[in-house]
Amino acid sequence: MRTDIGLPMEMGWEVAPAQCRSEDDGTLTVVAPARTDMFVDPAGGEPVVTAPRLLGPAPEGDFQFSARVRVDFADSFDAGCLLVYADPRHWAKLAYERSPQGSGMVVSVITRKVSDDANGFVVADGAPLWLRIARLGPAWAFHASTDGKWWEFVRHFRLDPGGEPVRIGLEAQAPTGSGCSVTFDRIAFHATRLDDLRDGR
Q1: How far apart are alpha carbons 158 and 165 in whole angstroms?
Q2: Which of 46, 62, 119, 163 could in theory staple to 193 by disulfide, Cβ–Cβ 3.0 to 4.6 A?
Q3: Could you tell me the residue range of the domain that residue 23 belongs to?
């Protein structure tokens, strides 16, 4: 499968999708198989890390990594995500996800042995959503935007994976349904520090 999406690192599939299509402009469409997810239930149980994910080594230093995400929502928790991943028990995802009520919304999950799941804002009518990961020294920040210009603050956190190398990338999931198609485009990487988490830039 082609994985050239314009990022300055070599990307590879940690878990392969059911289907994948890459365009010359860097647009990537991924189909997640049925019943695939990334979640470590804080109430107990084994980690579920079956969702297809395309990952590459996180570059040194501060940076910003973003993409516009469109999801063919069908079932609860269908989602397209940006991902920070060290190992099955240390990772974080910023998701554009279908709620059980049928709305598209911003969801973030920070996993340090178990998952901390938090809902953000609702997105009108399943419109495209921009997602962004920023690294700031030892910390990470998640932002989301409905227009790619004004960014809403979502989370600020540390992952602390205990020495495991961190990778970044894209993920698609279909935890309850028969599959989910996600399109990532306008994928961008900037080796610059995000100066203010809450000023909308």
Answers
A1: 14
A2: 62
A3: 12-190
Looking up tokens 């060290």, which residue turns up? 86
When divided into structural domains, the chain yields a total of 1
Domain assignment present for residue 107? The answer is: yes
Task: Give the pLDDT score at 1.
Answer: 63
6-60 residue pLDDT tens = 888 999 999 999 999 999 899 999 999 999 999 999 999 889 999 999 999 999 9
Whether 134 is covered by a domain: the verdict is yes
Which pLDDT tens digit goes with each residue over 145-176? 999 999 999 999 999 888 889 999 999 999 99
pLDDT grade for 2, boundaries at 50, 70 and 90: low
DSSP string, the chain: -----S-SS--EEEE--SEEEE-TTS-EEEEEETTB-EE--TTS---EE-S-EEEEEPPSS-EEEEEEEEE---STT-EEEEEEEEETTEEEEEEEEE-TTS-EEEEEEEEESEEEEEEEEEEGGG--EEEEEEEETTEEEEEEESSSSS-EEEEEE----TTPPPEEEEEEEBSSSSEEEEEEEEEEEE------TTS--
